[in-house]
């Protein structure tokens, strides 16, 4: 096999493939991707066999690493049926170079999974991401089908099929206005009721223009679905009312971190915490584009071979080309894509450049950078308030764990450290009255400082006195 070469190409990249385009059997209220159907009027939205083969060959040819990720998403990829994926595995095995490992993964709403799927996915070591927003009442708030019917039971049936066949799975939970204030309820549901070990949380930030906001205000069913509205693009400085706020985002992660760091380190993997630790350690890549210095190595490919800069930028301006006309390696290494990735750093406002947690945050994803900094510069991340709160909150624990890693010890040692610290705090606050000065030396009353409900560890140490 001739291996094409492009000196500007990264050795490895991640491509999300959408074999059904934006087609889905559900109609989740916040899904920005459903509207992308408009990019391909008249299409059948099914990836052809010839294109699938072409793609897998080019994907493998363009990697200089021994690991290649073959990742499917949508829309809903399972609508293609098991035979499509069986064929994908067959092709990947045919083109794979000796010693090369193909890492199969799929993001799904889970509603169509059954024993046939379970058997196939387990046999081929697929890693499945399954979208669940929390317990039934929370999940069904926005995740419904085309007829408006709730989906929780169908998702649980699908998850049971994965569990029966011992398929590796993780939870992808979106965070929005409705569930963001219920962090522990959600975390406990995933951990204790579902038995999840890998958790990923994605904030819902739906941008809208003032015109769209005005139209929604006069609509009987505002923001029902992007399907009913124009093509979703990353424009507008306003957000829909179901979007999470920056403050909610910070509080959500702070709350689950406080629980995790005391009892679940090394047992439950929360993507955001792993990524943060990588940045505290100073690893070359955090593993998540959003909190990396630059991006551009996480692209998306539509059902017809069109390649876009990123899954969040499937819009005409960010179309790089089509693999039927240009080899994938040249699209991934194109000037347009390199500029896209570098812009993440190059367009950072001065406020971010001098931020004390920039090493962990890196300004977040450019798609969310649409508010003004306190000094009026455009391009600050809408979630900044939450990022700042979270990265400050975890600093002590992350330093501890990073130090353990540097000394080749287990980061899970943090749990003993936290237990010791909590006990010392409990002793310190044991006999303090609500109106006494806080023993921490802040100069504030206890009830306004470590005795307040808002103070994370305070709630631990002083419950009897509040
Ligand atoms: S635009 Fe955002 S989601 Fe896309 S690759 Fe860059 S950081 Fe990642
Ligand atoms: S926390 Fe805010 S100011 Fe700091 S880097 Fe992130 S987005 Fe920028």
Secondary structure: elements and pairs:
Elements: E1 14-17, H1 49-61, E2 67-72, H2 82-95, E3 101-108, H3 115-123, E4 127-131, H4 136-142, H5 152-164, E5 168-175, H6 183-194, E6 198-203, E7 207-208, H7 210-217, E8 238-239, H8 246-263, E9 269-270, H9 271-281, E10 298-301, E11 306-308, E12 319-322, H10 328-332, H11 335-346, H12 350-353, H13 358-361, E13 369-372, E14 378-381, H14 384-393, H15 395-406, H16 414-429, H17 456-462
Parallel strand pairs: 1-2, 1-10, 2-3, 3-4, 4-5, 5-6, 6-9
Antiparallel strand pairs: 7-8, 10-11, 11-12, 13-14
Bound molecules: iron/sulfur cluster (SF4) (2 copies).
The site of one iron/sulfur cluster has 12 residues, from helix 12, helix 13 and helix 14.
Structural features:
466 residues; alpha/beta; ten-stranded mixed beta sheet; two-stranded antiparallel sheet; disordered C terminus; binds iron/sulfur cluster
Give your account of this protein's structure.
Helix content is 38%, strand content 13%. The chain has 17 helices and 14 strands. The strands form three sheets. It has a ten-stranded mixed sheet. It has a two-stranded antiparallel sheet with strand order 7-8. α2 links the parallel β2 and β3. α1 (49-61) runs parallel beside α2, α3 packs across α5 and α16 (414-429) packs across α17 (456-462). It starts with 13 loop residues before the first strand and ends with a helix.
């Amino acid at each position: 096999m001739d291996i094409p070469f492009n000196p500007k190409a990264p050795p490895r990249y991640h491509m999300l493939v959408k074999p059904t385009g934006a087609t889905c059997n559900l109609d989740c209220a916040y899904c920005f991707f459903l509207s992308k159907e408009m990019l391909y009027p008249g299409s059948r939205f099914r990836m052809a066999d010839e294109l699938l083969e072409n793609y897998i060959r080019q994907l493998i040819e363009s990697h200089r690493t021994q690991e290649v990720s073959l990742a499917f998403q949508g829309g809903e990829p399972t609508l293609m049926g098991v035979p499509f994926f069986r064929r994908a595995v067959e092709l990947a095995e045919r083109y794979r170079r000796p010693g090369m490992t193909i890492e199969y993964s799929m993001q799904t709403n889970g509603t169509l999974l059954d024993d046939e799927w379970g058997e196939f996915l387990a046999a081929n070591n697929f890693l499945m991401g399954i979208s669940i927003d929390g317990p039934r009442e929370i999940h069904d708030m926005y995740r419904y089908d085309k007829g408006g019917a709730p989906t929780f039971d169908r998702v649980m049936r699908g998850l049971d099929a994965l569990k029966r066949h011992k398929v590796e799975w993780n939870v992808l939970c979106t965070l929005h206005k409705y569930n963001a204030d219920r962090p522990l309820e959600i975390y406990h549901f995933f951990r204790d009721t579902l038995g999840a070990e890998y958790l990923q949380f994605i904030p819902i930030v739906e941008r809208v223009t003032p015109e769209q906001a005005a139209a929604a205000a006069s609509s009987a069913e505002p923001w029902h679905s992007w399907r009913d509205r124009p093509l979703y693009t990353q424009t507008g400085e306003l957000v829909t009312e179901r979007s999470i706020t920056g403050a909610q985002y910070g509080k959500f992660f702070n709350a689950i971190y406080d629980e995790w760091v005391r009892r679940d380190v090394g047992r439950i993997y929360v993507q955001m915490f792993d990524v943060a630790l990588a940045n505290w350690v100073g690893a070359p890549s955090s593993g998540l584009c959003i909190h990396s210095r630059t991006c551009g190595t996480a692209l998306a490919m539509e059902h017809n071979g069109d390649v876009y800069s990123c899954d969040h930028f499937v819009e005409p301006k960010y179309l790089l080309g089509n693999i039927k006309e240009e080899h994938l390696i040249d699209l991934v290494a194109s000037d347009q894509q390199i500029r896209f990735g570098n812009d993440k750093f190059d367009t950072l406002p001065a406020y971010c450049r001098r931020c004390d947690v920039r090493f962990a945050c890196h300004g977040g994803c450019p798609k969310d950078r649409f508010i003004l900094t306190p000094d009026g510069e455009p391009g600050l991340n809408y979630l900044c308030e939450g990022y700042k709160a979270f990265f400050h909150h975890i600093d002590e624990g992350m330093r501890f764990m990073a130090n353990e890693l540097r000394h080749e010890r287990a980061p899970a040692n943090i749990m003993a450290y936290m237990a010791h610290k909590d006990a010392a705090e409990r002793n310190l606050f044991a006999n303090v009255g609500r109106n006494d000065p806080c023993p921490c030396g802040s100069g504030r009353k206890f009830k306004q400082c470590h005795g307040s409900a808002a103070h994370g560890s305070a709630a631990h140490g002083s419950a009897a006195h509040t």
